[in-house]
Specification:
The chain is an all-alpha fold. Helix content is 74%, strand content 0%.
Amino acid sequence: MFFMGNVIDFIKKCGRKLNKYWLTVIIFVIVSFFIGDNTILDIISYNRQISQLEKEIESVSAERERNLEKLNAIQSDNEGLEKFAREQYNMTRPNEELFLIVE
């Protein structure tokens, strides 16, 4: 109720300068911008979420392009497939030794 007391004091002090129309406009602005479903704070947070999601879309599309290039390299020739198998799955040729260095 501390807030209501301040509002009542403000209205008493500025009562002559504020008529019922200005008071209605002020209350409408407060209600429409700060109370309800689409407040200014909600709009700001939605804009932040949109920018984060756009960045995520860009990174996912870049990763997709890299993966498509790898897929094309694997499907195009046997050397690409062999390179991929050696790097990703540590596969070897017969009579070949593999040394893994773990850091």
